[in-house]
Automatic annotation (TrEMBL):
UniProt cross-references to PANTHER family, sorted A to Z: GEM-ASSOCIATED PROTEIN 4 (PTHR15571:SF2)
Domain of life: Eukaryota
Record region (Disordered): 193-215
Protein name, entry field: Gem-associated protein 4
Gene Ontology process terms (BP): rRNA processing; spliceosomal snRNP assembly
Length: 1057
């Protein structure tokens, strides 16, 4: 098998072989297999010198001075174990094939354990001895430990005692690093050639690499430590120096702690204590001239100190400790008390051995305090021992209990643990990130830069930021801050997006809306330039391919200055055409931006995004396109993502809607559109209840009331166009409906009080406003209307009541009725159903028809588009039922033959009705009634009604299969178009000169285009004269158009027919 070092016959083995030959000669006539301890000083010298020669030679590159010491010790022990007569017998050929140590071992004469132990002692290899002893099978390891104790107990020298104590201490340490190849090969070889109770009947196996570990800490605690405890009893008389006594007692305390561990359920050391202990050990070693670790580098000393702190896992102890062990510990402490107290009471003599003794004494004290054992005698002895330990500890100077390490050293130790990924390095990272005294030091920044991958959790990154900012206040050096800021931002940038959001949330909570820019100049320097560059690139690549890159860029900006970043996004979303959705998606990637400042009234405060919207663009939207993009952008931000939307419906209502629902607010129309979207996208339960719903209803009601005085208000005080009346009414209806749906969530008393308050406030408004709140008023209040309405309607008294209305005098019932028809479709149907007109009485029908035109003229100018369409529906319903009488009054009928106009009866009578209404409206009594803007509005409503009429004519013609090929129905349709054309031009001529409007003339042009289609398709025999007469008639009417351009356009069109 391939090995990493030569174990066959080579120059180094030859040198070693020569050393053993010289030793054999010196030992003669006894063989080396009978060597005694007393013989070693003379006999062992050639062996040690041979090893020194091998280790100082240049046979290996790079030089490995310790490698051959370990190889020689392993080969020697393997040879002794393989020579055990109780093991299986193998031929030399078989061993040459399977034993990796055979070639080297075969070059060494037979030796006994004296050579082995003395060689380990000479090499100072107590750790290697413990490591190899630990991997031996359980019974073999115990037997080898017994052999060691037996050897050391005979003619014990100070070196023997020191080696014994060192081996014992090394065995109890948690680990010795990763198991190297040499140890693994030794483990395999010893298991191959030694009998195992579980495998006694099985044939031996060939060596096949590293087998799974069959020994471990539990085998050490159960099998070996008790043997070594007995060994201490045998050699204690040979332990004289106070330091060595501290070492011995510490070993005994540790062994007892391990054996008692399962009863005490101890906890792992807090990481800060763990770090302080390692630092203290390093400090003690550095000041101890006798300690071999003093000359090692910091990295090696930290590794050794960690091993000394990480003792054998107590959870794997045996759980058994004999009364004899308790008695032995007590007697040892009593016997050695003068020497121990002498060194422990003097802080100036504190050393690693005394520190370790006190540390293990404190650990055992805790274990004994929680010890539980069913045996009363055992419990009594443990209690007595605990009392003795406490009394012993009280005699020690408190200053001797610890050795405080320098702050900089602790930081350096933490850096080494992190750099080398030692045990508990992840916990040390948490300490490293939280220790303000270390922050911003050169070593701190350098360690963080080398180990960024270990700080890849949002908790650690946030802790680092907080620590660095706090530490930076004391140092204040810009150069340090700059380097630290760069590394910290790199740590943050490497986090996944979800973790970055967690960091942003923490930054906002710690430093509010300015983020890290509010802490250091290093974080704010160059931010504005970086912001502009980043968003220039984002705008240029606003597509799906660049989305992830854009989010990554914004993530860095957001943590530096959330407020400035969001304001930039908001501004660009409004100012740049077509980018608002892309930018909204970027913002929605950061749910942490839902942050809001903690206030006394959290429900009233504006969140970060809302504040940025208000400060960056609200009130500055000038063009219709900007308002449209802002509205769409807002809707995107209201859409939920994984953690909820960035904006809450109630928040938007409180800050962008409710304050602007005033007739004098320049943003009232936009606020109405926002409210319309909120009511459409509503997905949150109970949001209406949290945004002052009844004041919101009242604000909408007041806006509606203001439309009743719209044309009487000065032009500068009408920021909201009359067309927005439908939006207000729709919002009011939907809001009332949603509020009623959530009625059960409101306490009944509060609901009644709120409804009463709203009813009282609406009493001062137009009476039609209250009709829109019937769903809210419910059974609390009836519909209230002027008394004159009851004269034309049969309204039930349990639902309707009369209200004082001074402006509605005698004969105004039809006006009130028509206003009710404009409120809603449902109320319109009720009004039509309850209208009291006797159609069998001609005089009553005639009187109603005249009154209808008078009411229409009074209502018409204040109608919105929706209300006007409802009125058109009412007119059609009344005409169809012959409740409303409108004679044809065809002034131009002598120009045309008599036709069947019954399919077009409504269309002709509606056009005539509108003509008569305008005659009334534009007459001498009404010409000064409306301002110029009102006439334009009225003209638009007229054009809207006639346009709908033309659409109805087209649908009727298609439905009846009318074609223009000379059929009488097509001629009738042509006649209707001619009538509407004449009426439209007539209306245009009646409009006041101070309020010119091209709408009716353009409408006439559209009607003419439809007539032209029928005219060109009419090829019936004898139609030429009729068409010529029609053209002449239309031209004579068009001559009266005052607008020269439109008149010329129509006349030219007629000439081309």
């Amino acid at each position: 098998m391939a090995l990493p070092w030569p174990v066959t016959i080579c120059g180094d083995v030859t040198v070693l072989h020569g050393g053993f030959l010289l030793a054999s000669r010196l030992c003669h006539p006894k063989p080396l297999s009978e060597l005694t301890k007393a013989d070693w000083p003379v006999v062992g010298k050639p062996i040690v010198e041979a090893l020194q020669e091998i280790c100082t030679s240049y046979s290996a590159y790079p030089p490995q001075p310790e490698a051959w010491k370990e190889k020689a010790a392993v080969v020697l022990w393997s040879k002794i174990l393989s020579s055990d007569p109780s093991g299986p017998a193998f031929s030399a050929n078989q061993r040459w094939k399977d034993d990796p140590f055979f070639s080297a071992a075969n070059a060494i004469p037979e030796v006994n354990r004296t050579v082995l132990y003395e060689l380990f002692k000479a090499l100072g290899a107590s750790r290697l001895f413990a490591r190899l002893l630990r991997v031996l099978p359980d019974p073999v390891g115990r037997r080898e430990a017994e052999a060691l104790v037996e050897y050391m107990a005979k003619d014990t020298s100070p070196d023997d005692a020191a080696f014994f104590l060192n081996v014992w201490g090394e065995l109890m340490k948690q680990k010795d690093g990763a198991e190297d190849r040499l140890t693994a090969m030794f483990r395999a070889a010893t298991r191959q050639y030694l009998p195992d109770p579980d495998e006694a009947d099985r044939p031996p196996k060939r060596f096949k690499g590293d087998p799974p570990p069959l020994t471990g800490p539990s085998s050490v605690a159960v099998g070996i430590l008790p043997v070594l405890t007995e060994g201490l009893k045998l050699i204690k008389e040979s332990i004289v120096p106070a330091k060595m006594k501290c070492h011995a007692v510490a070993n005994l305390l540790e062994a007892l702690s391990i054996s008692l561990a399962p009863h005490s359920q101890p906890e792992e050391l807090p990481v800060r204590t763990y770090l302080d202990k390692i630092s203290s050990v390093v400090t003690l070693w550095s000041s101890d001239g006798e300690n071999p670790c003093r000359d090692q580098g910091l990295e090696q000393r930290v590794k050794e100190a960690e091993r000394s702190v990480s003792i054998l896992s107590v959870a794997q102890g045996s759980g058994e400790a004999s009364l004899v062990d308790f008695a032995f510990l007590r007697s040892l402490l009593e016997e050695w008390s003068p020497d121990l107290q002498g060194i422990l009471r003097d802080p100036q003599q504190i050393c690693y051995e005394s520190y370790r003794l006190l540390d293990r004494l404190a650990s055992l004290e805790k274990i004994l305090a929680s010890y539980a054992e069913p045996d009363p005698l055992q419990t009594k002895k443990v209690s007595e021992l605990a009392e003795f330990v406490v009394d012993f500890s009280k005699k020690i100077n408190p200053e001797s209990w610890s050795k405080t390490a320098d702050r900089d050293l602790v930081a350096s130790v933490a850096a080494v643990i992190i750099d080398k990924r030692m045990d508990r390095h992840a916990e040390v990272c948490a300490v490293f990130a939280a220790e303000k005294d270390w922050a911003l030091s050169r070593e701190w920044v350098a360690c963080l830069g080398r180990n960024k991958d270990l700080f890849q959790t949002p908790e650690l990154v946030l802790r680092l930021l907080e620590t660095a900012v706090e530490g930076g206040r004391s140092t204040g050096r810009f150069e340090q801050q700059t380097g630290a800021a760069k590394v910290l931002l790199e740590c943050y940038s490497q986090l996944p997006l979800a973790d970055q959001n967690a960091v942003v949330a923490g930054v906002l909570a710690a430093w509010s809306r300015r983020g890290l820019s509010a802490t250091w100049a290093a974080f704010s320097e160059g931010f504005q330039e970086e912001l502009n560059v980043a968003f220039n690139q984002i705008i240029q690549s606003a597509s799906g391919d660049g989305f992830q890159k854009a989010v990554a860029s914004v993530a860095r900006l957001v943590v530096l200055n959330p407020e400035a970043t969001v304001k930039k996004v908001v501004h660009l979303a409004v100012a740049n055409l077509g980018t608002h959705r892309f930018l909204a998606e970027i913002l929605r990637s950061f749910p942490a931006l839902r942050f809001r400042e903690p206030t006394e009234a959290p429900g009233e405060s504006a969140g970060l995004v809302m504040s940025c919207l208000k400060e960056a663009v609200w009130g500055r939207l000038s063009s219709a396109k900007e308002k449209e993009q802002f509205l769409e952008f807002l809707v995107y931000l209201l859409q939920p993502n994984g953690a909820g939307p960035l904006l809450q419906l109630a928040e938007v209502t409180r800050h962008l809607v409710l304050p602007s629902l005033k007739s004098d607010s320049p943003s009232v129309e936009l606020s109405l559109r926002i409210l319309d979207q909120l009511l459409r996208v509503s997905s949150e339960e109970g949001w209406i209840q949290s945004c002052h719903p009844f004041p919101l209803l009242l604000a909408l009601c007041r806006l509606l009331d203001g439309f009743g005085h719209y044309w009487h208000a000065p032009a500068g005080q009408r920021p909201c166009p009359l067309e927005a009346k439908d939006l207000v009414a729709d919002n009011l209806g939907r809001l009332a409906e949603a509020l009623v749906a959530q009625k059960e969530a409101v306490p009944p008393e509060l609901w009644t009080q709120s409804v009463s308050w709203l009813h009282k406030k609406t009493q001062a408004l137009d009476w039609t406003v209250g009709l829109r709140l019937k769903g809210v008023f419910g059974q609390h209040f009836k519909n209230e209307a002027p008394a004159t309405l009851f004269e034309v309607c049969q309204l039930p008294g349990e639902e309707w009541a009369a209200c004082p209305s001074p402006s509605y005098g005698a004969g105004s019932g039809l006006l009130a009725w028509m206003e009710c028809c404009c409120v809603s479709t449902a109320l319109q149907e009720e009004m039509l159903a309850r209208l009291a007109v006797n159609v069998d009485n001609p005089e009553e029908v005639n009187l109603f028809s005249k009154g209808f035109i008078v009411a229409l003229v009074q209502v018409f100018p204040w109608c919105s588009h929706g209300e006007w369409r409802r009125l058109v529906h009412v007119i059609r319903n009344l005409l169809d039922k012959e409740v409303l009488y409108v004679p044809y009054s065809l002034e131009y009928v002598h120009h045309l033959p008599l036709l069947d106009l019954r399919p077009f009866a409504f269309h002709l009578r509606f056009s005539v009705l509108m003509l008569r209404a305008f005659q009334f409206l534009c007459g001498a009594s009404g010409a000064t009634w409306l301002p110029g803007e009102a006439w334009k509005h009225v003209s638009k409503l007229y054009c809207l009604g006639v346009s709908d009429l033309l659409g109805s004519l087209k649908g009727l013609a298609q439905g009846q299969g009318l074609s223009p090929e000379g059929k009488p129905a097509a001629r009738a349709l042509s006649f209707v178009y001619i009538q509407v054309f004449c009426h439209a031009l007539h209306v245009a001529a009646m409009l006041p000169e101070e309020a010119p409007d091209e709408g009716p003339v353009l409408l006439a042009l559209e009607v003419l285009a439809r007539y032209e289609t029928l005219h060109d398709a009419d090829e019936a025999p004898g139609s030429a004269l009729r068409k010529a007469n029609e053209r002449h008639f239309l031209a004579s009417v068009a001559e009266n158009i005052t607008h020269a351009e439109l008149r010329a356009m129509i006349l030219q069109k007629l000439r081309k027919m």
